[in-house]
């Protein structure tokens, strides 16, 4: 049976109607086995420390998700800190861009095959020192794992965030103009609209919901032509992905939607469904799962 699954998967991947990946897996229904087609799946998750998330069961959960690409942020670990399972969990292979500072920031990306192109960093020294960008190309698909700076700790860090936004936009324009299907996954540290955070009135002057940040996102999703997958699929569902550790924010669902999969229009049109996984808590963020057709 395993050989048959592998053979059918290979034939699907080679079929012109399946531009990326598809997979047939057995799904038990009572005592019988029914075959179901899994759509290409991309997951994004801020781990708030890969070692902590591992202990909380993240990779055990991930093993059952049949994801084709997984983007992770806030590794808070160096290469030498990663165990074999963190590097290559259950059929996936990982690539990482840790920050120079130990226990801080860092991004990674997992996939089922080697990328045709891998860019670790933007080529901007101060940004790359914080481990915030990793790009991988698979055929006509480009996937980026992104961890945009937070400005909540100080005015200086807020200025770092504004500077990042200004310098990152040309890269997004270049990606959009490439003709490729592109999805940028990660923690953008911006809630775009009032629906994207529970207590929007109390956060109008706080980092993550500042007018300048929201205007930048509006430009990105407007004149720049990018698409916010969750909001495209679910215009009226908040979809929070982060909760403060203070008080009972998680229990009461007083959250923010700051984790996104933002895609070029052609790829966004193939977004089939999305979900935020909250049944288990691996981090102060929840994984964002998107399934794409064809």
Write a structural description.
The protein has 294 residues and is an alpha+beta fold. It is built from 9 helices and 16 strands. It has helices at 2-14, 50-55, 58-62, 84-87, 125-128, 155-176, 211-221, 229-233, 265-268; strands spanning 23-29, 32-38, 41-46, 69-73, 93-97, 107-111, 117-120, 133-138, 141-147, 181-187, 227-228, 242-243, 255-256, 259-263, 271-276, 288-292. The chain has a 6-stranded mixed beta sheet. The protein has a 6-stranded mixed beta sheet with strand order 7-8-9-10-14-11. A hairpin with a 2-residue loop joins strand 8 and strand 9. The longest helix has 22 residues, at 155-176. It is globular, with a radius of gyration of 19 Å. The model is unreliable at 4-36 (pLDDT under 50).
Strand segment count? 16
| Share of helical residues | 25-40%
Amino-to-carboxy terminus distance:
24 Å
How do the strands line up in the largest sheet?
5-6-4-3-16-15
Summarize the helix and strand pattern as letters: HEEEHHEHEEEHEEHEHEHEEEHEE
With helices defined by DSSP (H or I, 4 residues minimum), what is the helix count?
9
Write the layout of secondary structure elements.
Blueprint: H1 2-14, E1 23-29, E2 32-38, E3 41-46, H2 50-55, H3 58-62, E4 69-73, H4 84-87, E5 93-97, E6 107-111, E7 117-120, H5 125-128, E8 133-138, E9 141-147, H6 155-176, E10 181-187, H7 211-221, E11 227-228, H8 229-233, E12 242-243, E13 255-256, E14 259-263, H9 265-268, E15 271-276, E16 288-292
Parallel strand pairs: 3-4, 9-10
Antiparallel strand pairs: 1-2, 3-16, 4-6, 5-6, 7-8, 8-9, 10-14, 11-14, 12-13, 15-16
């Amino acid at each position: 049976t395993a050989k048959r699954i592998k053979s059918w998967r290979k034939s699907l991947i080679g079929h012109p109607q399946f531009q990326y990946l598809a997979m047939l897996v057995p799904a038990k229904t009572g005592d019988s086995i029914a075959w179901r087609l899994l759509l290409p799946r991309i997951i994004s998750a801020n781990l708030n420390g890969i070692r902590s998330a591992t202990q909380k069961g993240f990779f055990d959960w991930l093993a059952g998700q049949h994801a084709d690409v997984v983007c992770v942020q806030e590794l808070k670990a160096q290469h030498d800190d990663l165990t074999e399972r963190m590097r290559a969990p259950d059929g996936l292979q990982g690539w990482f861009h840790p920050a120079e500072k130990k226990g801080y920031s860092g991004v990674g990306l997992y996939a089922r095959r080697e990328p045709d192109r891998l860019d670790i960093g933007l080529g901007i020294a101060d940004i790359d020192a914080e481990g915030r960008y990793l790009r991988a190309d698979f055929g006509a698909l480009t996937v980026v794992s992104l961890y945009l700076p937070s400005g909540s700790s100080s005015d200086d860090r807020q200025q770092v965030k504004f500077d990042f936004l200004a310098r990152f936009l040309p890269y997004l324009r270049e990606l959009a103009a490439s003709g490729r299907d592109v999805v940028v996954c990660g923690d953008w540290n911006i809630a775009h609209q009032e629906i994207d955070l529970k207590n929007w009135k109390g956060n109008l002057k706080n980092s993550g919901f500042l007018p300048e940040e929201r205007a930048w996102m509006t430009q990105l999703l407007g004149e720049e032509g990018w698409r916010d997958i969750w909001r495209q699929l679910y215009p009226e569902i908040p979809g929070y992905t982060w909760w403060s550790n203070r008080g009972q924010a998680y229990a009461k669902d007083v959250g923010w939607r700051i984790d996104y999969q933002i895609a070029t229009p052609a790829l966004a049109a193939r977004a089939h469904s999305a979900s935020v996984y909250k049944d288990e808590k691996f981090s102060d963020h929840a994984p964002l799962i998107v399934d794409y057709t064809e």
